[in-house]
Design brief:
heterodimer, A: 324 residues, alpha/beta, Rossmann fold, 7-stranded parallel β-sheet, 5-stranded parallel β-sheet, 9 helices, B: 249 residues, 9-stranded mixed β-sheet, 6 helices, 13 strands
Chain lengths: 324, 249
């Protein structure tokens, strides 16, 4: 029995970056004790060694064609089964698109408290405590879960990832979830507009966001070029998304995505309170805006007062040179 | 077709959030409250689907007595009736909320239950999924397109892989993402009619305390505000700072 169990997420036949983050935190919480990891998918068994190299003492694997696509009920049943084998005090899952579906399902089926999207977690004698931004970061709640197992989802990009070591071979146990494809309550018929290599904003290290000051969608090459030059992902303010210039999945803010990248560029964004809430935990913020009084400058580590149409192309060229 | 939309009363996204004197809640005086924006999107799509397929839209809200204002707003938008699980206060985790909602939903005919993908106060994004799990019904989250045909729902949802086209048999549960619908404004007629629509008021079950909110604190202050310079002349210095001081490039 391990005190800490984690769900490791895979995509396109590889472990996701979040797997190292949940295992890094799990090892810290276990304080040298055992950590179980749960791997679910189709054709994922080969990744068990990678999971072990990141520090899992035991890898519980469910590998079956019922798990080719993520499903709430299928993965939920498989993870609940694995957790019954592990009976941990705390189950860690990344607060990713998949994790945000999976963790509540497992919490509900096991009658466990859920501490969602936390930025810190601790194991105490009687409870599991966590720190969790609420109101998209306008306030921070200290919460605790008192059930025998507590399910915790970890905000991406916040926790120190485990580094892989050439350890012993994985201690692998296979778990039969007792779920077949025909049992699944939802069917993925097809996947449209495959999100190429685009990283989700919440998992990106560098984000370049544009606002209404860019005057129109035809000027978005400024944002895209800068993002490409720094290896970042494009974001947008609510005003821009509401105007239909950019898709909803790029919106940063209280009614969009809450992000904590290493580096956040706010280009021609004034900094409405709901936008600031969604990005003010970024490690470094750069703002470029014509209005020296714009609220964005109050939270920016570095600001340039100037016209984005002039400053951004020069900055893009400078950063391109750095990469070459 | 019976549609049920679960909605929550929350402070408006433009509100400044201040910690109250008890250190466990937020200051609510002077704060405007609204239907949580994603819940409002779910409600709008339910109203549209009712217009296409017929049936009834019921609003289900677990919240303080004050939430009757947001329930009336939903009725003014066009919902037919409401169930208000009156909360006596205290903190409640998502699992306890889901249990209370599932108990009601299990006792009424609800072909399609719609939630917002998350509330914009607690930011858990868990109640819709948990409720579906407790009811043993299919759930499709982050839905940006939703149609009903032949006893099934066909939805588009945003995933890491792209836009998934997902099918499930009714009864089912969905959670709304932005893009699903643009909420309407209530008409004057709608507001008048809402006053006569029935609200079934019940007491919410007591919290079981599986989760506690120990304290709320303001976020750490950012030490921002440094202006590197003006215009293109400041670019070189900015790049130097990003590399040598912040060490992020």
């Amino acid at each position: 029995m391990a005190s800490v169990c984690v769900f490791v997420e895979t995509a396109k036949g590889k472990l996701k970056k979040s797997a190292a983050e949940v295992l890094g935190e799990a090892k810290r919480l276990a304080g040298g004790g055992d950590v179980d990891a749960v791997l679910i998918g189709h054709g994922v068994s080969g990744l068990a060694d990678d999971v072990a190299a990141l520090g899992a003492s035991r890898v519980l694997v469910t590998d079956d064609d019922a798990f080719g696509h993520f499903s709430v009920d299928g993965f939920g049943a498989a993870l609940s089964k694995a957790v019954a084998t592990s009976s941990p005090r705390v189950l860690l899952v990344a607060a990713s698109v998949v994790g945000k579906d999976l963790a509540p399902a497992v919490a509900a089926s096991t009658g466990s408290a859920l501490l969602a999207d936390v930025t810190a977690v601790a194991l105490n004698d009687a409870s599991v405590t966590a720190t969790k931004p609420i109101f998209a970061g306008k306030a921070i709640a200290n919460v605790s879960g008192n059930t025998p197992m507590v399910v915790v989802t970890l905000r991406p990009n916040v926790f120190e990832p485990a580094t892989a070591s050439d350890g012993a071979a994985a201690n692998v146990e296979s778990v039969d979830a007792g779920v077949s494809k025909a049992d699944l309550r939802t069917i993925v018929k097809e996947i449209l507009a495959l999100a190429s290599e685009k990283l989700d904003l919440t998992e990106a290290d560098i984000i370049v966001s544009g606002g209404r000051g860019l005057k129109g969608p035809e000027n978005w090459h400024l944002i895209e070029n800068l993002a490409e030059a720094v290896g970042g992902v494009c974001g947008a303010s609510r005003a821009v998304v509401d105007a239909g210039w950019r898709p909803h999945d790029e919106q940063v803010g209280q009614t969009g995505k809450t992000v904590s990248p290493k580096l956040y560029f706010a280009i021609a964004i004034s900094g409405a309170i709901q936008h600031l809430a969604g990005m003010n935990t970024s490690k470094c913020i750069v703002a470029i805006n014509t209005d020296a009084e714009a609220p964005i400058f109050k939270v920016a580590d570095f600001g340039i007062v100037g016209d984005a149409f002039e400053v951004v192309p020069v900055l893009t060229e400078e950063l391109k040179k750095l990469r070459e | 077709m019976n549609f049920v939309v679960c909605l929550k009363r929350v402070p408006d996204s433009a509100a400044k959030i201040k910690v109250a004197a008890d250190g466990k809640s937020i200051e609510t005086s002077g704060v405007d409250h609204v239907i949580s924006p994603y819940d409002e999107i779910a409600l709008e799509r339910a109203l549209q689907l009712r217009e296409e397929h017929g049936g009834e839209v019921t609003v289900l809200c677990l919240g303080l007595p004050e939430a009757s204002k947001e329930i009336r707003q939903a009725l003014a938008m066009g919902a037919d009736k409401a169930i208000h699980l009156k909360d006596g206060g205290g903190s409640r985790g998502p699992f306890e909320i889901a249990k209370a909602l599932a108990e009601v939903l299990g006792s009424i005919e609800a072909d399609l239950v719609l939630f917002g993908k998350q509330s914009i106060d607690a930011d858990n994004g868990a109640v819709g999924i948990m409720t579906a799990q407790l009811l043993g019904r299919p759930v499709i989250s982050l839905v940006t397109k939703l149609e009903i045909a032949d006893g099934k729902v066909l939805a588009h949802r945003e995933s890491d892989a792209g836009t998934e086209v997902v099918e499930a048999s009714l009864p089912a549960v969905v959670t709304a993402q932005r893009g699903l619908a643009e909420p309407r404004y209530p008409s004057i007629k709608g507001i008048m009619q809402a006053k006569k629509k029935p609200i079934d008021e019940r007491d919410a079950p007591a919290s079981e305390g599986s989760m506690a909110l120990d304290s709320i604190v303001p976020p750490p202050e950012r030490q921002g505000g440094r202006i590197v310079g003006e215009g293109v002349d400041a670019v070189a210095e900015l790049v130097r700072l990003l590399r040598q001081e912040a060490k992020v490039l």
